[in-house]
């Protein structure tokens, strides 16, 4: 049976921190599925409409060599349903979420990966705005 890894994120203004987390997630199994958060979810979660639309963000993530499948994450509350739907063996989250998804350990392995230092979409947007 192939080992399916699943992860979630906005992946707006795609940067090297995004690439690294997806590469490390892919290395934990045979197949990587990525839930890309919906525009509406981002507006609720981060109070900001993403620079790139969900359609564009999905297209970028889907085109990566390490990614096998993408879908739109409509709600943060549906994690368990998404894991079951995609038959995930491993859930990967950034360590900014450490401990927050341990309850899903009954249906899959839960791994928190350290973030790449000193880069984020928010910092990039702020940097460009100051130019
Ligand atoms: N990520 C990472 N290293 C970074 C930035 C993000 O490993 N420097 C990971 C996050 O932990 C998450 C995924 O990339 O697993 C998607 O994160 P996302 O929130 O879309 O990116 P950020 O750059 O953190 O965006 P923002 O500044 O809007 O919070």
From TrEMBL:
Annotated organism of origin: Nocardioides currus
What's a single GO MF annotation on this record? nucleotidyltransferase activity
Indicate what this protein is called per its UniProt record.
Glycerol-3-phosphate cytidylyltransferase
Q: Which UniProt keywords apply?
A: Nucleotidyltransferase, Transferase
Q: Which PANTHER family does the annotation name?
A: FAD SYNTHASE
Q: Where is the Cytidyltransferase-like domain?
A: 6-126
Asked if the record carries the keyword Transport, the reply is: no
